[in-house]
Specification:
By secondary structure, this protein is α/β, with parallel strands linked by helices. It is 32% helix and 26% strand. It has 2 domains: 164 residues, NAD(P)-binding Rossmann-like Domain (Rossmann fold); 159 residues, Dihydrodipicolinate Reductase, domain 2, CATH 3.30.360. It has 12 helices and 14 strands. The chain has an 8-stranded mixed sheet with strand order 8-9-10-7-11-12-13-14, with helices on one face. A 6-stranded parallel sheet has the order 3-2-1-4-5-6, with helices on both faces.
């Protein structure tokens, strides 16, 4: 059912990612060539009404300030009937509980990545969303970039580099533990794997899991190693994951680290019989693809995909279209894949005996 549609959003939590998402919601859709959907934030909730109002006062344009309601609890926002969809922007350790409450309140939900702390939590949310007949998606924004969609088409439909043999996927950001305690705390589900490793997984899954010959099968081999943080030994500071995908015959090496930055010239490299695809920094928000084809030397073609803003609006557009059309999950990034991605990270943690506190690993009976 085509036509112009405006989705009314409620935002839960007021940290940095909520700020970026809010700014993209109020950006003019025409700047990215979109005319069928638009977004309107109508409510913001924080741990205090003062924080929520301060967020609105700082980031809302003048014409919207009086139209957005501030709430001092998340539960109050979930009772607001003007909210069509809730964006969960709390720390990862709270995603499961916050999303579960929103689903039970009958709200459509976009939950920021990582979806949950473990696959069991993700599976439970999937079940509850189906029971309540509401939309649910994990907010892995990179999956919705025009660049990402073009990458998948070039790799698997056009087979521009021929048969894929190897994949290297890295997402590393140097963190200062004195300034970013969230990443160095087990009780907030910190560490490299759940935060940075999500992006490492994006390119692994797009290249290997989605390979036509793989038929959405899990890897036949998964081996992982971690370096623990000396500041907080419960979390990983650096993780390397090796996966073997037997059906398409691909070997993949994925890395995520808080100890160093990714090399700017190459964070993703996919090698095939006819050449390679390289994506320079950064793997969460890439704007260029380098296609290097074998021949007399290595012919390189650079494809550019500028992002007019932060880039979070493309996933929001997908959510708006899905809700407009009565869909309960997104075809580009379905819930089964979110659960699968979490299961891979569960296995990485299992092999390295990395556990978070029980109160954030819990799953309600169902």
């Amino acid at each position: 059912m085509a036509g112009h549609f405006t989705l009314h959003w409620g935002i839960i939590a007021t940290g940095g990612i909520a700020e970026l998402f809010f700014k993209d919601l109020i950006a003019d859709p025409a700047l990215r060539g979109v005319s069928d959907v638009a977004h309107l934030p109508v409510a913001v909730a924080s741990r205090s009404i003062e924080k929520a109002q301060a967020f609105i006062d700082e980031f809302a344009p003048i014409e919207l300030k009086s139209e957005i309601t501030a709430y001092g609890t998340y539960t109050e926002l979930l009772k607001d009937e003007s909210v069509d969809c809730v964006y969960i922007a709390t720390p990862a350790s709270s995603h499961y509980a916050n999303t579960l409450e929103a689903l039970r309140a009958g709200k459509n939900v976009l939950c920021e990545k990582p979806f949950t702390v473990n696959a069991a939590q993700a599976k439970h949310l999937q079940i509850v969303a189906k029971e309540r007949n509401v939309f649910l998606m994990e907010g892995v924004w990179t999956r919705f970039f025009p660049l990402t969609i073009a990458f998948k088409r070039m790799l698997h439909e056009e087979r521009i580099i021929g048969k894929v043999h190897r994949v290297f996927s890295d997402f590393s950001v140097l963190f200062d533990p004195a300034r970013d305690l969230r990443m160095y705390r087990a009780d907030t589900a910190g560490g490299a794997l759940l935060d940075l490793g999500v992006y490492m997984n994006v390119w692994t899954l797009l290249s290997c899991y989605h390979h036509p010959d793989n038929e959405l099968s899990p890897p036949t081999v998964l081996k992982a190693s971690m370096l623990r943080s000396p500041i907080c030994p419960e979390i990983d500071e650096s993780t390397t994951v090796i996966t073997v995908w037997e059906k398409p015959q691909i070997m993949c090496i994925g890395t995520a680290s808080m100890m160093t930055d990714s090399p700017a010239d190459c964070v993703i490299r996919i090698q095939g019989t006819k050449g390679e695809i390289v994506i320079p920094i950064h793997g969460s928000r890439p704007e260029k693809i380098l296609v290097k084809l074998k021949g007399n030397g290595m012919d390189t073609c650079t494809l550019e995909y500028p992002i007019p803003g932060q880039g979070l609006f493309w996933e929001a557009d997908a959510v708006a279209r899905d809700i407009r059309d009565g869909k309960k999950e997104d075809e580009n990034y379905p819930l089964d894949e979110s659960v699968f991605a979490m299961s891979l990270m569960d296995e990485v943690r299992r092999q390295n005996n990395m556990n978070f506190p029980a109160d954030i690993e819990f799953v309600e009976d169902y």
